[in-house]
Structures are given as C-alpha cells and as structure tokens.
Amino acid sequence: MKKYKSFIPTLGAALLLSLGSAFCAQAADIGWVTEDGTWRYKDASGNYVTNTWKTSGDSSFYLGSDGKMTVNQWIDDEYYVNDSGAMVKNSWIHITEEGGSKPAGWYYTDSKGKLERDGWETIGTYKYAFDSDGRMRTGWFFDGDDIYYLGGENQGYAKTGWQCLDYDEEDKPEDGDISEARSSASDSSKWFYFQSNGKAKRADDRTYAVETINDRKYYFNEDGVMMTGWIAAEEEAEAGDTTGISRFVYLGDENDGTMARDTWLELTEHPASCDDKDELAEGDTDEMPEDGDSNWYYFESDGTPAYLNAKASSMSRATTKVNGDSYFFNPYGVRQTGMIRMVNQSGEEMVGYFGDSNSDGKMVTGKKTNLNVDGDSGTYYFADSGSDKGAGLNGTKDDYLYYQGRLVEAEDGSDFEVFEVKNRLYLVNESGKVQTDSKNYKVDGSYMYKISGGTIYYIDDDKNVEGKVEASDASTLPEVIYDKEYVLNGN
Fold first, then answer.
1. How far apart are CA 87 and CA 163, in angstroms?
2. What is the pLDDT of residues 163-196, one digit of tens each?
3. Beta partners for 353?
4. Cβ of 224: how many Cβ atoms within 10 Å?
5. CA distances from 467 to 305, 322, 444, 472 (A)
6. Which of 182, 306, 377, 472 could form a disulfide with 320 if both were Cys (CB 3.0 to 4.6 A apart)?
C-alpha cells in the first residue's frame, strides 16, 4: 500500500479542547455533558441520547445504547470512530487483531465516513479493491475474466506496468495469494504486464494475446504470463508453407519476450521442441532441426521466419533477400549453405550455391572457379541478374557451356565432345568452349565432326558427311553434387 502520513487521524488534545469548548458552551442540562470523564448527550427532556450520531464542530460522534460516547469501534458495520470518538473520514483503518467484528487488514472510509466495500475505489493516485467486508484486497485478484495483482498486505493497490512475480504454472495462485516480486524470471517466476487500468494483458478468445509496448510486440497466454521462445502465434499458415512455420514467432529468452523481427538470430532451440510443436505439420523430418543444434534464422518485419515457399517458380521466390543479399532457408526456416537443387511445379530445375558450411550463407552469383562442392572442384556460373539470379546456368555464357551452373568440358585427350543442354547440341573442347565455326574437327588426330549451318555432323577421314549427330549420341553431362534437394509442389 502507498503509505500516507497518517492512516487513522488521531484527533488528540486539540480536537478534544475544541469539543470541550463546544460542549461547555451549551446549557448544563441540554446537549453534551461529561460524567466521570465520559461524554454523553442530553436531549431537551433531560434524557440521555442513545444509539445515534451527534455532531460537534466538523466531527460526528456516536452515543451507544448506554448513552456513552463510543470510541475505537465499528458502528453499524459501516462507520468507525477513533480513540477520540470522532467518525473517521477519508482515512485508512488498520485492524491488526483477529476475532473482532472484522477480519484483520486495511479498511477505508469515504468523505462521509462510510466504509468502502465490494468494489474498486481510486484513492490518491492508486486503485484499490475491497471485498464484501470492506477489507482491502491484496495479492492476486481474479475479477471475472480480469486478472489483477494488488501487492502485499501493506500495499493493496493495482499494479501497473511490468511485474516479475513468483508463479508456479503447475500450481497457479488463487484469490488473495501473495507472490514475491523478482528482478528476473526463472522456472518459478514469470513476467506479467498490467495495463494502466490494472488488468493483466491476457488471452481471451485466442490462444495468445498480443500487445505492442514501447514499439515492441509481446504475447501473453490466458493466465497473463509473458510468452518466451517459440510459439504458434497465428491461426493459419501462409500459402506455400508446407510445415506451418509461418504460424510461429520467436520471443526471446525468459527475460526478453520481444518478438524478433527484421533480424538474424542463431538459436539452439527450435519450434519442433517448443510447447506448440504439435502445430507444425508433418514434413521431412531430416529437415527439422533438433534442440541443441545451432542454426540461423531470419525473421521478417512481421515476425515470420523466412522459409522455402513451396509455390516458388524462380530462384528469387525460393530465396529471401536481406539487405540486398539473397539467402536460402529450408521449409522449417533454417538457413542453408552449400549447393541446393530445387525442382518447381513445372518440373524445371534450379540450382544455387550459398557458400560452404562455414560461410554466412549468401547466394553466390557470377563465375566461380575452383568451387569445391563435397570434395569435387569445378568452375561454375550462376546468373547475376533477373528473377533467376543465383540459379546455375543451363546454356552458354561468354562462349562457354554450363549445365546446372557447372562448366561442361570435353574429356582430357578427346579434343572435342558433343553435349546436349536444354534440347540443344553443342560441340565443346577440353576447356568447355563451344565451337561454332563451320569447319571440320579432329578427335585424337582423326576427323570426327563437321559444323555446317549451325548443325553438327559426323564425317569420315575424307571429310565426307556420314550423318547428323543426334541427341542420343551426346556425351554424359558432368555430375553436379548437391548438398540438399527440394521438390516444390505447393500446398
């Protein structure tokens, strides 16, 4: 309770002198009289007034059934007279002993001296609740669907703002239970947010309630507990989300609670092991991170983790751009590295490279020589513009042939080979350069191919055409090793 200078006004000698002066000013046989140090009141008939109030100056006094002025008692269970006999107004009254007419505790009388009871009252700058006896409530107060915390036995006012309180989720407090205030949360204490009206922010018709406090977004459960870690905050997943990860947000540790957004976080806790894990759809369990493993996530401006959209038809839709760079996330929102292969709903293949396992996962674009993928080194080219930016090239770039981003070269010692990429035949030398000149070409010292009018033909040693090279004659394309493969088929 907010303490005032005086909870029970002690009227003392000054008031008694005032009272005595008023009494003595009246005739001896009418009004206030004192006998053996006790004040009484005589009416016009000379009888002692009983069971009623009489005033003197600004104070009211009660005459009991014996006509004596009453002190330090409750009158009609509504009013209180102090040790000077005056009705207490606008003041706190502290009952310290059990067994009297009222339980021990704090009580308050209003400007008319009437006891506040069974409701709320703002006193000074604080809001207090009183029970049906008029006793100030303390501790937890559950008023219908509303939750309040009123502090210890000498506080009693509705708390506002952030409060960290002892709280056992397996043995929740009841009305009147008092919790110790803590400076930080633990297994046995939790954070609550009490609004300006004293009500705890809590969920009602939804699993969680959301509140923006100082430009930060927080979530609370039905008990008013601030949520932390991963929770399934949204009712439905976004289109293209095959796992339900778009329903989840991350709220920091037990003393944070702030929804992560526009930020990278390396986490060892994951949605698959949080209390809401059953809200995740069944998917590829190999892709689901395990608790304890460290993984990177990126949270969008709305708090949604970046994830692989199963409806993606291009590299730009399959990746997420952060500060101008693109990254790849699996269906559970975990950032990936290495060579990634995707097949979209149209059956088209997309290949991208996102650095080695020790990198920051940025998409690689342009030409990369001596790129080592799972121990196999090669030259690659990834598109550097457009919606397919980052996708491995299938075709020619600067007169060199690439397949799924990897340079296609004739086998050492073979001089030239024919390869088919995207239904087109190419004659390629040992460096991967595409031959386009209309002339005859030797392989191992003998004439083998001829290009005429853009078509590749077989020729004999006399340079006579023996037939057109068919797709079935093409050499095997180089193997491209992938760290991960994904089939994008939507929801």
1. 38
2. 999 999 999 999 999 999 999 999 999 999 999 9
3. 339
4. 24
5. 57, 53, 20, 13
6. 306
CB 131, CB 175: distance < 8 Å: no
CB 305 within 8 A of CB 327: no
Residue located via tokens 């939790």: 190
Ramachandran quadrant class, 23 (left: phi over 0; alpha: psi -120 to 50; beta: rest): alpha
Q: What distance in Å separates the CA atoms of residue 475 and residue 464, rounded to the nearest whole number? A: 22
Report which residue type is found at 271: P
pLDDT band per the 50, 70, 90 thresholds, residue 23? very low
Burial class (CB in 10 A: 0-12, 13-18, 19+), 346: exposed
Q: Cα separations (Å) of 275 from 48, 233, 461? A: 74, 12, 76
List Cβ neighbours of 66 (8 Å cut-off, separation of 6 or more).
50
Task: Count Cα neighbours of 366 within 13 Å in the Cβ-side half-sphere.
Answer: 1
Distance CA 33, CA 101 (A): 29
Specify the pTM: 0.84
Q: From CA 392, how far away is CA 389, in angstroms rounded?
A: 9
Q: Which of 203, 155, 191, 120 is nearest to 1 (CA)?
A: 155
Structure tokens at 334: 């975990």
Distances (CA, A) of 71 to 68, 82, 83, 96, 111: 9, 5, 5, 17, 19
Angle at 87 between CA 83 and CA 93, to 5 degrees: 70
- Residue 399's contacts (CB-CB under 8 Å, 6 or more residues apart) are 433, 434, 436
Measured distance CA(273)–CA(229) in Å, rounded: 10
Q: CB atoms < 10 A from the CB of 422, how many?
A: 7
pLDDT, tens digit, 9 for 90 and up, residues 404-431: 999 999 999 999 999 999 999 999 999 9
Contact partners, residue 382, CB within 8 Å, separation at least 6:
352, 353, 363, 364, 365, 366, 368, 389, 390, 391, 392, 393, 405
Three-state DSSP state, 396:
strand
Tell me the two tokens of residue 221: 């459960």
**Spatial distance between the Cα atoms of 332 and 271, rounded to a whole number of angstroms:** 9
> How far, in Å, CA of 355 to CA of 360, rounded?
7
Type and span of the H or E element at 316: helix 315-318
Largest CA distance in the chain: 155
User: Hey, what's the torsion of the CAs at 85, 86, 90, 95, to 10 degrees?
Assistant: 0
In whole angstroms, give the CA distance from residue 352 to residue 343. 12
- Checking 320-325 for CB contacts under 8 A at 24+ apart, the result is 322/264, 322/298, 325/362, 325/363
Rounded to whole angstroms, the Cα distance separating 165 from 194 reads 12
CA atoms in the 13 A half-sphere facing the CB of 146: 11
The one-character DSSP state at 259 is P
